[in-house]
Design a protein that fits this description.
This protein is an alpha+beta fold and about 375 residues long. It has three domains: about 160 residues; about 110 residues, no CATH class; about 80 residues, no CATH class. The chain has six helices and 17 strands. Helix 1 packs parallel to helix 4. The longest helix is centred in the N-terminal third of the chain and has 47 residues. The relative contact order is 0.17.
Length: about 375
């Protein structure tokens, strides 16, 4: 049964941006990443963009797991993840008392693999979508500059309620109170331009109609791209929370801590700083390393964000070195309240949006109660090519 734990570690690797060699669910395909050497030609942002700090459950940890995620407070996030997967029919919808340990550990593996895969897939997809959005914004601005939006006059009688359109006439009419003027200079606010009765005969009407139709079409294209962007971001968050949810449920039937979260650019802590890692100029040593880590309600003896850093000694024995295979590594010890992570991570760089990563998919975890497990530790950073 040792192979089951090996498979789970391999699948958890997906959540860290790696490719598992033997996925449990069929028909998974992954694009091989292009790794860029980590050197002085890349500037790495010191702020952690995203982080994964989890412990890998073993067979004995899931034997008593009973969990129906589709019928609880996190059902929307599970549903969001499953809706965006074309192989969700292969994933478990619940963990029952009747399921064998093998079914449970493999089911948990499949969920974690799917969540990690879609996070990376959508991160790459977001870069393309945001580029499309920027190009469309430029197209809209070019139209706004050339279409003469500000040439169309609007006289209105009274200011409408917030969000409602102005009722405009093309000519001033003091007798009816249409004396105030309003200028609409962008397609985004053109929707606030509505016409009073009998304006169709005015010389400006056709120009107004043309602008209205063009702006509506351009703005609809912008809104469509933005809707997809926001949906992708939400699904990435749902995928991460699904993994945390599953691990926290596993905590309930064990005496171990499996899940933690760190304050990052993607998931900032509203009351504290974001985590950071600063290398020396030659990138062969670390000058500053701090993580702001929180443990969700479960088995942890300490809940709430706290600093774990080189400065306070909770991150220690830090070194950067080259492995025998020529891979640059970051090695350190992270002392958390209930366990200690011994991390020996690979350093890799891909073209943005993946960027710079520090990954150990099989970190040694020693709990204060003397139990040991494997853990996954991953940090992600933005990079800028010099």
């Amino acid at each position: 049964m040792k192979n089951l734990n090996t498979i789970l570690v391999s699948l958890l690797l997906i959540s860290c941006g790696r490719v598992a060699q033997n996925p449990v669910v069929e028909n998974f395909t992954f694009k091989k990443p292009t790794v860029i050497p980590f050197s002085t030609s890349s500037m790495v942002s010191p702020m952690v963009r995203a982080a994964t700090i989890v412990v890998v459950p073993e067979r004995e940890d899931v034997k008593d797991l009973v969990f129906n995620p589709m019928d609880g407070s996190t059902a929307a996030e599970w549903s969001d993840l499953y809706t965006n997967l074309d192989y969700s029919e292969f994933l478990p919808k619940e963990f029952t008392k009747e399921m064998s340990i093998e079914e449970k550990i493999l089911g948990a593996s499949e969920v974690v693999m799917a969540a990690g895969s879609i996070r990376d897939q959508y991160l790459r997809n977001l870069s393309s979508l945001e580029s499309d959005f920027s190009e469309k914004e430029e197209e809209v601005r070019a139209y706004e500059d050339s279409a003469g939006l500000t040439d169309i006059t609007c006289y209105y009688a009274s200011r409408p309620r917030r969000g409602n359109p102005y009722t405009c006439r093309f000519d001033e009419d003091a007798a009816s109170g249409f004396t105030r003027t309003k200028t609409f200079y962008s397609c985004e606010n053109w929707a606030l331009f509505s016409l009073d009765a009998n304006q169709e005969v005015h010389v400006q009407f056709q120009k107004h109609l043309e602008i209205a139709q063009n702006c509506e079409g351009l703005q609809a294209e912008l809104d469509e791209i933005n809707t997809v962007i926001q949906a992708r971001k939400l699904t990435r968050l749902s995928a991460e929370n699904v993994v945390l949810d599953l691990l926290l449920e596993t905590e309930k039937v064990t005496d171990l801590v499996f899940a933690a979260k760190a304050a990052t650019i993607e998931k900032p802590d509203s009351i504290g700083d974001e985590s950071s890692l600063v290398f020396s100029a030659d990138k062969m040593s670390v000058e500053e390393f701090k993580l702001f880590v929180d443990f969700l309600p479960g088995n942890s003896s300490k809940v709430g964000y706290a600093e774990y850093s080189m400065a306070n000694g909770l991150i220690r024995d830090v070194s950067v070195y080259m492995s025998d295979l020529g891979v640059k590594k970051l090695k350190f010890t992270l002392e958390l309240p209930d366990m200690t992570f011994f991390v020996d991570a690979d350093i890799s760089v891909e073209k943005m949006p993946i960027g710079f990563r520090v990954i150990d998919s099989a970190a040694r975890v020693e709990f204060n109660n003397e139990k040991t497990r494997k853990g996954v530790f991953k940090l992600e950073f933005d990079t800028i090519k010099l």
